[in-house]
């Protein structure tokens, strides 16, 4: 049971069109969000948490109708936890294009009266940040105590400091990168090809056919999951352990426990995640590159930032390696921006940012203790 208790998702509708980086617009859209804790009288204790690829607005606590559905960062956020909801007002917003309630490919396109499907406009990290800023405007929050995210969420936190430099005091960028490497883009493309070549994809309009491209989603998730784990963690968890006592000498049967685990993860993912959303979100990952408009010079790109930073990486994370976090740190130091950096020697790979690690949680707690003192929370 979560210490946060039951939380209720909320909805906010926007009739004003959101101009996107692509030149397209999104109009008549709804964003789903959750809040935890109380906003203080000065409205100075708000923390925005940005979600990663397959997560949602449900970052902590449970839902009354599904008490087993615990928020994805519940070990970090809640009463008495590193991000203490007794002191901070925490907001997590489901991004447009997602499949967890906010307007996305599974919703009706107001221009056609039909489901968007693959006609949903391509969205970027910058578009998400602009959408989140609109929610904060409605909530009457002009400046955040902090914005925090891991992985793709960390990219959003970084983008916040560049798009709205005066609207946050602190940024916590965890297990992230200033852009994706060619290898990362390659993994995303293989996952997308698995989806779009599934016969049930129907060019992204599979809803009308009453089918779901589950085979493609399964493979996409299996590929992704491999990249989130380290070689050491896979070895420790599964090794070369067989599923049965004897080899079946089959090219199609499951022989090893790791195969069984990946298929289970793929099956589970294909039941709840939308294929078009997967394509959109991996593209947003690919496109993120704030240094691009500065000729690839990250230091120049980061010159706009005014927040104090905490950057955290994990040694065995090869998807978002410590070297990529150090690029962010160097770019900040080049601009004499206040930054603390922690490189945690953890065996879990990229997934480490979601797991319990006393050193990691201790650093995050210390950061929020400092912020609380700063704002008198």
Automatic annotation (TrEMBL):
Residue stretches making up the AB hydrolase-1 domain: 45-356
Site, Important for acyl-CoA specificity: residue positions: 319
Pathway as given in its UniProt record: Amino-acid biosynthesis; L-methionine biosynthesis via de novo pathway; O-succinyl-L-homoserine from L-homoserine: step 1/1
Record carries keyword Acyltransferase: yes
Main location, first listed in the record: cytoplasm
Swiss-Prot/TrEMBL GO biological process terms: homoserine metabolic process; methionine biosynthetic process
UniProt-annotated binding residues for substrate: 221, 351
Assembly, per entry: Homodimer.
Name by which UniProt lists this protein: Homoserine O-succinyltransferase
Record organism: Sphaerotilus natans subsp. natans DSM 6575
């Amino acid at each position: 049971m979560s210490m946060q208790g039951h939380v209720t998702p909320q909805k906010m509708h926007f009739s004003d069109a959101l101009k996107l980086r692509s030149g397209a617009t999104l109009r008549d859209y709804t964003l789903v969000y959750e809040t935890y804790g109380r906003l203080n009288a000065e409205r100075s204790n708000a923390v925005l948490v940005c979600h990663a690829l397959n997560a949602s607005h449900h970052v902590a606590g449970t839902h009354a109708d599904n008490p087993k559905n615990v928020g994805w960062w519940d070990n970090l956020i809640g009463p008495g936890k590193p991000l203490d909801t007794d002191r901070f007002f925490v907001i997590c917003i489901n991004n447009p294009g997602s499949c967890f309630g906010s307007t996305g490919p599974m919703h009706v396109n107001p221009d056609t009266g039909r489901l968007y499907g693959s006609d949903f406009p391509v969205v970027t990290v910058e578009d998400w940040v602009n959408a989140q800023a609109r929610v904060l405007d409605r909530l009457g929050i002009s400046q955040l105590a902090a914005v925090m995210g891991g992985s793709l969420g960390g990219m959003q936190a970084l983008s916040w400091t560049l798009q709205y430099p005066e609207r946050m005091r602190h940024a916590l960028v965890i297990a992230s990168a200033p852009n994706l490497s060619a290898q990362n883009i390659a993994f995303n493309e293989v996952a997308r090809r698995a989806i779009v070549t599934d016969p049930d994809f129907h060019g992204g309009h599979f809803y009308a056919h009453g089918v779901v491209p589950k085979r493609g989603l399964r493979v996409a998730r299996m590929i992704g999951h491999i990249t989130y784990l380290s070689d050491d963690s896979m070895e420790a968890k599964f090794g070369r352990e067989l599923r049965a006592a004897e080899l079946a000498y089959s090219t199609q049967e499951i022989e090893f426990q790791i195969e069984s685990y990946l298929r289970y993860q793929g099956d589970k993912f294909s039941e709840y995640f939308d294929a078009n959303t997967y394509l959109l979100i991996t593209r947003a990952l690919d496109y993120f590159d704030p240094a691009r408009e500065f000729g690839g010079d990250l230091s120049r790109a980061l010159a706009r930032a005014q927040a104090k930073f905490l950057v955290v990486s994990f040694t065995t994370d090869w998807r978002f390696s410590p070297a990529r976090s150090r690029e962010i740190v160097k770019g900040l130091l080049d601009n004499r921006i206040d930054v603390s950096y922690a490189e945690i020697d953890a065996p879990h790979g990229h997934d480490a940012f979601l797991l319990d690690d006393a050193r990691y949680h201790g650093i995050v707690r210390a950061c929020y203790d400092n912020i609380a003192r700063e704002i008198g929370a």
